[in-house]
Design goal:
283 residues, MetI-like fold, globular
Length: 283
């Protein structure tokens, strides 16, 4: 007796997944195309930039353009100043936010909730509203055109304080009681218990705050006067002439590409901790 050949049902082709993947690929291409186009322009001569229709393939003048603009605007000093600003502001924001959130959550003092809401309400004020008064303060302190004046006004962050406060509220009370029984003081509890558990949140905030500090334009423009204190975003703007002379877009895009490298490296290096921190924050 022959065994009957049972027909194996064929899987239906899922056009929904194909459509979703196609949509995502198109979205990625639309996002990446301006960056690619900027890179292409940074490899061309000014004559090639002005050609119509525009060439969409890299040219052979990449090194010439990058070396030329590097020497013209002292790119090394600009990158160094931006790195100092981004690192100092991000680390300062995290340190101050951890301490302020720790005080708000674990210490009982009169007006604690009022202090918290006063910190939170600073999010409602845009930076340009308070920038004149901040400049007057650093001017009276003699911090104009210094790293202190560039960094100190930017290291307070209500957003980071709020996020750390929300995270500390999820710490079980039993852990706090156990630390007290072991004889741990407030700073010991902060150093040995809270900070190790805050690692993912700190990493995620560091990436966001580093990019925030790196992209600062208005405050560095006001707080610095000399060429040696300018940051890279201000350097990009300085390569675009304000008169009737047409900008050298190939050199402008070369500066933009070099300014893009450090924050991209930070994101790539800390990507794992950054994503883990975002997931922990959502929980």
């Amino acid at each position: 007796m022959k065994a009957s050949n049972s027909a194996v049902p064929k899987e239906k082709f899922d056009w929904t997944k194909v459509g979703i993947h196609l949509f995502l690929i198109i979205a990625v291409l639309l996002i990446c195309f301006p960056l690619y186009y900027a890179f292409v322009l940074s490899t061309q001569t000014m004559e090639e930039v002005m050609v119509t229709p525009q060439k969409l393939l890299p040219s052979s003048h990449l090194l010439d353009n990058y070396i030329k603009i590097w020497n013209r605007i002292n790119m090394g000093q600009l990158l160094f100043n931006s790195a100092v600003l981004a690192l100092a502001t991000s680390l300062g924001k995290i340190a101050i936010s951890i301490l302020s959130a720790f005080a708000i959550v674990y210490f009982n003092f009169r007006g604690k909730q009022i202090v918290f809401w006063m910190i939170f309400l600073t999010l409602m004020l845009p930076v340009p509203v308070r920038i004149i008064s901040t400049y007057q303060v650093i001017s009276e302190l003699g911090w104009v055109d210094t790293y202190m004046g560039l960094i100190i006004p930017l290291i307070a962050s209500a957003t980071a304080t709020f996020l750390f406060r929300q995270f500390y509220l999820t710490i079980p009370d039993e852990l706090v009681d156990a630390a007290k029984i072991d004889g741990s003081g407030p700073l010991r509890f902060l150093w040995s218990v809270l900070l190790p558990n805050s690692g993912p949140s700190i990493a995620a905030l560091f990436v966001v705050m580093f990019i925030y500090g790196w992209n600062q334009y208005l405050w560095p423009l006001m707080a610095t006067n000399s060429e040696k204190m300018k940051v890279v975003v201000v350097g990009i703007a300085s390569t675009i002439p304000t008169g009737t002379q047409p900008p050298e877009w190939n050199l402008v895009m070369a500066v933009a590409m070099m300014a893009l490298i450090p924050p991209v490296l930070v994101v790539l290096f800390m990507q794992r901790w950054f994503m883990h921190g975002l997931l922990e924050t959502e929980k």
